[in-house]
Amino acid sequence: MTGNSDKTQQGGWKPRTRAVHAGTRRSQYGEMSEAIFLTQGFVYESAAAAEARFIEAGPDEFIYARYGNPTVRMFEERIADLEGAEDAFAAASGMAAVNGALMSMLRAGDHVVSSRALFGSCLYILEEVLTRFGVELTLVDGADLDQWRAAIRPGTRAVFFETVSNPTLELIDIAAVAEMAHAAGALVVADNVFATPVFSRAIELGADIVVYSATKHIDGQGRCLGGVILGRREFIRKTVEPYMKHTGGALSPFNAWVMLKGMETLDLRVRAQAKGALKIARTLEGDARLARVLYPHLESHPQHALARAQMESGGTVLSIDVKGGQEAAFRMLDALRIFRITNNLGDAKSLVTHPATTTHQRLPDDQKKHLGITPGLVRLSIGLEDPDDLISDLRGALDQV
Q1: Which residues, other chains included, contact 37 with Cβ-Cβ below 8 Å and sequence gap of 6+?
Q2: Residue 6 falls within a domain, yes or no?
Q3: CATH of the domain at 291
Q4: Do residues 273 and 314 lie in contact, with contact meaning Cβ atoms separated by under 8 Å?
Q5: Which of 85, 122, 290, 345 is positioned for an S-S bond with 80, CB 3.0–4.6 A?
Q6: Is the dihedral of CA 314, 23, 91, 140 positive or negative?
Q7: Does residue 383 fall inside a structural domain?
Q8: Is residue 226, in this structure, part of any structural domain at all?
Q9: Which of 60, 68, 74, 62 is nearest to 23 (CA)?
């Protein structure tokens, strides 16, 4: 490209401004909106220029879309700037990001400690894929610091957790676990999707690597798959990049462009959604038809103090436990008029999921019980609709129970 990145101009800009402008690259045409470079390869002025680029590519020099792309690079720089990370590598999906972050650093004989309250696909990577290649895994109850302390040992290579677990909204004390991990020489890998880049403090609290499913809040409108791995530049470029570019997990330029457009409204969307989620959680709490309402910033949440310390907001997701089990939960879901039944979250539209039969269906019943994923548990992702309309929709659906 002939244009330059705006990255050096960001100085004291606040997060909302950086989410709009960080990492912008403009071509010689001076386009206002970020350009989509839909190309799989790049040409060179000479054979010697091609040789030089393969030896070491400059910041605005690219080789192949699997290795990097101007549109993708804009997204990587923007999300890294917002998160407070040195660098980022964009991936084809959130699970490509989780897989890439872990597989790129681990080898046979390495030891990983992870919280057991994880999304089903994350558990698959840990329990099925990593162990297949000789990685030793220890699972702990993430809220129990004594279990982390007992499991982490000298030689532990990494710890992994969801900062807020899906779907029971259990929190990990990031600073405490990071201190234990770093004392043993381990890296801290945090899946931060529920906290969002807007409310995140994971790196500040000690996380070394943060992963996001950009499919969720970053796109936020149900359009594209995407993911991102964030961390120190040396780790991203020397460990993650070689693995990702050779195994093909890169984000497409078009999807990167969608994510860039999503980031322009990310702060506004997520704050409005989180405000609505808290209002809905407070309204539903105490409803006789519900066994419990789970939301990190509710005073009744068992980790309320930790949630306040780690997250500016409780996020966009809450979970409710409908009395009467699966049959009652299904009646409620089927009676909803605004909420849509789907397994995504973080969308501008309000979404509802029954985790026990969908996202966490593969877990054995005893493990679901241990994690609190009951037959009546329903996960609600709050969108941008008027919260009063959503409350009316939920109450009307609960009337059917």
Answers
A1: 69, 70, 71, 253
A2: no
A3: 3.90.1150.10
A4: no
A5: 85
A6: negative
A7: yes
A8: yes
A9: 74
Q: What is the three-state SS of 312-369?
A: CCCCCEEEEEECCHHHHHHHHHHHCCCCEECCCCCCCCCEEECHHHCCCCCCCHHHHH
Domain boundary among 264, 295, 323: 264
89 and 206 both lie in a single domain: yes
Asked whether residue 120 falls in the same domain as residue 246, the answer is yes
Provide the 3-class DSSP secondary structure of residue 47. helix
Q: What gap in Å lies between CA 286 and CA 28, rounded to an integer?
A: 60
The whole-number pLDDT of residue 29 equals 85
Residues 257 and 271 in one domain: no
Rounded to a whole number, what is the largest CA-CA distance in the chain? 74
pLDDT of residue 10: 55
d(CA 353, CA 322): 13
pLDDT, one tens digit per residue, over 157-198 is 999 999 999 999 999 999 999 999 999 999 999 999 999 999
311 and 238 in one domain? no
Domain match, 272 and 258 both: no
- DSSP 8-state symbol, 84: T
Domain boundary among the residues 264, 284, 307 is at: 264
Q: Are 211 and 97 in contact (CB under 8 A)?
A: yes
**Which residues, given as ranges, of the chain have pLDDT below 70?**
1-11
Q: Indicate if 383 and 280 belong to the same structural domain.
A: yes
DSSP H or E segment with residue 243: helix 241-247
Cα 46 from Cα 51, distance rounded (Å): 9
Amino acid identity of residue 291, one-letter, is A
Amino acid at 269: R
pLDDT in tens, 325-367: 999 999 999 999 999 999 999 999 999 999 999 989 888 899 8
DSSP 34: P
